[in-house]
Amino acid sequence: MRRVLLASTAAAAVAVAGLLPAAAAPTAFGSVYEVTSAVANSATPGNVPAGPADVTFTAPSNPLSFNSNGSADYTIGSFLSTGNATILSGAGHLGDTVDGTLFNFTGSVSVTNLEKFTAGHDDGMTLVIGGVTVISAPGPTSFTITTSTYTGPTGNEPFQLVYGECCGPPGVLNVDLPLVSPVPEPAPLAVLGAGLLGLGFLRRRKTP
């Protein structure tokens, strides 16, 4: 009787575990805002509009890499496609010019104190990790490479990267961010599975 009860409880727990969603792959969440030239010329967190974005997307970081070389592919859709972005909303804006846009990337990264970050960008960008501004180069520029050091604590920290594209092609953003997957919240099914296992062991102790 004990073996039957334990076997059925274990089987139920395995079945429940099979229903749980797989862990999400590390990605950055992005928003695109079509803005005035004054805003696009100053890529800072404070300039990110409060309203809804024109386009939202996710993108992997291996590294985050977007490049629009000339006028023929100087659209939001072409720019995002070079970085293997997955469009979540705003497909109607993908044919709009990428000139005069502000990109806001968010997510979590695994960082080490005094870790160096290098970014290639045309135009401006700001990178903030755990409330610490790591790269501050918000103004228009031809392609340049900026290297800065993270001075915050070691561990998993939220990040925000703001990139502004203005002043005509090319548009370039290239930065390697050590993204980490979001930690899933405890699911009711997982709690149920744990409860079934606990019940099985309790019955095992009580059954003569």
Short descriptors:
208 residues; alpha+beta; Jelly Rolls; 2 domains; seven-stranded antiparallel β-sheet; four-stranded antiparallel β-sheet; globular; disordered N terminus
Identify the quaternary structure here.
Answer: single chain
Largest sheet: 7 strands, antiparallel
The strand count comes to 11
User: What spatial form do the alpha-carbon principal axes imply?
Assistant: globular
- Report low-confidence residues grouped into runs of 5 or more: 2-21, 187-204
Encode the helix/strand succession as letters. Answer: HEHEEHEEEEEEEEH
According to CATH, what is the topology of the largest domain?
Jelly Rolls
Please give the CATH class of the largest domain.
Mainly Beta
Number of domains: 2
Strand percent estimate: 25-35%
* CATH architectural arrangement of the largest domain: Sandwich
Determine Rg (CA atoms, Å): 23 Å
Straight-line distance between termini? 10 Å
In spatial order, strands of the major sheet run: 4-2-1-5-10-7-8
Helix content: 10-25%
Mean pLDDT: 83
